Amino acid sequence: MLKKAIISGIIFSSILLVGCNGGPEVKVIDAPKDGENDANISPKSNLLSELRDKIIVSITEQTELDSESIAIMLDGSPAKGIIDVSVGFPKDVKVDDTMIQQIVKDSIKNVSETENVAISEENITIKIERY
After folding, report:
1. 55: exposed, middle or buried (C-beta count within 10 Å: 0-12, 13-18, 19+)?
2. What are phi and psi of 106, to 5 degrees?
3. Integer Cα distance of 6 and 13 in angstroms
4. At 35, is the secondary structure helix, strand, or coil?
5. Could you give the CA distance from residue 20 to residue 112 in angstroms, rounded to a whole number?
6. Alpha-carbon dihedral of residues 90, 105, 127, 53, nearest 10 degrees?
7. pTM over 0.85
8. pLDDT tens, residue by residue, 79-131
9. 40-47 long-range Cβ contacts below 8 angstroms, 24+ apart
């Protein structure tokens, strides 16, 4: 009984001491409201975001894929005319990879013309992955 009391006391005091050692300082930052922080968003991220949305819409309109089954990753420097695109979709879907590549190229062309950004086909890298 005495042994249990001693062990319980040691555990309790160690928990108490660990909790009082001043741990890391936590800072609370308020999240910006809608539209409040738009000035800090770079044109690159806006263009890539718009391009991602356009690619998803185009693929869903021209194929049997739904937007939830498409995974897209975009990177590059639109200001320098360089775009890297990875498109992933399920293995069991019967979609031609060249068709997806053409949809992506057309989407990049449309968005770059709309945004007045010059992106040549030589600087576009498209990777198709099935999962």
Report:
1. buried
2. -65, -40
3. 11
4. coil
5. 57
6. -50
7. no
8. 788 889 999 988 888 888 899 999 999 998 888 888 888 888 888 899 999 88
9. 43/78, 43/79, 44/77, 44/78, 44/79, 47/78, 47/111, 47/115, 47/117
